[in-house]
Amino acid sequence: MPLALYTFGMFAKPAEDPVNAGFYDLNDPIFELVDKAEGLIARSGYASDPGPKPWGPEVYPRFYQEKGDGWSPATLSLWTDMEALFSFTYFGLHAVALKRGREWFQKPSWPPLAMWWHLDQDYPTWAEGVRRHEHLHDHGATPTAFDFKEPFDETGAPTKLDKARLERLRASQAQRRLQGSNRTDHEAGNALFSLTHA
């Protein structure tokens, strides 16, 4: 059963403010990496952007505050398991972006992400992601929507991440970075170097 993920954040300043330049510098390299990530099944695109098709009209949770942009950073995707998702999220270039998030995003009073086991054959919609995200905020972690702190398995039982699998995934990611020889890997590596040596 695939694992669905919805994420939501809000810029502290309008999207086009120069302070957000680092976010945009990382955006494309991270999307290129996630498209090759171990465990990714598919991700929704955005109506206004080239790439994957959107999974329904993009909507936002009630925490959204309009700043004149008409949008806010959000993602919707399907993964094979929690360990693969955790590995991509908290290791590598995406982890560097998370550490810099306070430069761009306002401090949230909502969960940064919501996960759930997706039962339907169709892709989850943005509207479903928003419902699950708000449910997690309102009720805490349940089988309906949860996070990495309090995860649930496919049967609805509380569970824990497989640490041994996480170590294997982390080692695999490190090996791919060492062996990376295509343009995407070089661009991501350059972005990572510039961020960590700024």
Helix coverage percent of residues? Answer: 25-40%
Choose one word for the global shape: globular
Uncertain residue segments = 181-198
Give the overall average pLDDT: 90
As a percent range, the share of strand residues is: 5-15%
Major sheet characteristics: 4 strands, antiparallel
Provide the succession of SSEs.
Answer: EHEEHHEHHH
Distance between the termini: 42 Å
Number of domains: 1
From the alpha carbons, calculate the radius of gyration and give it in angstroms. Answer: 17 Å
Structural class per helix/strand content? alpha+beta
Total number of β-strand segments? 4
Protein name: DUF3291 domain-containing protein
Region (Disordered): 173-198
InterPro entries: DUF3291
Pfam families: DUF3291
Brief overview:
This protein has six helices and four strands; from the N terminus they run βαββααβααα. By secondary structure, the chain is an alpha+beta fold.
Can you give a write-up of this model?
- 39% of the residues lie in helices and 11% in strands.
- Strands 2-3-1-4 form a 4-stranded antiparallel β-sheet.
- It has one domain.
- The radius of gyration is 17 Å and the shape is globular.
- By secondary structure, it is an alpha+beta fold.
- The chain contains 6 helices and 4 strands.
